Amino acid sequence: MPDSPCHDEHVIYEIAADKTVPSGLKMDGYKVVNGERVFMGTLRCEYEAPKKTLRCTSRRKDSGDWEYTLSGDTLEGTLTINGKTRYRKIVAKKLTASSR
Description:
seven-stranded antiparallel sheet
């Protein structure tokens, strides 16, 4: 895997219905820097319930394909760039406001 600039980052993903696309989702991503949220961007997503997979794309120039699998409170996935290069592995756990 190429050297990604992100290592052991703390992130916050906010997933909600995408009001511009029927049955679509949007995921706003933030990294935590010095205890503060820093907006990274919005991904447009589709959730495939039978497989528990979330597939997302970015509209930025450095876009790639994000694919996640949901298992309990864990979202685990990869970022693939240029159609074939696995660039990043992601593991995120759901936390409630009281557990942060």
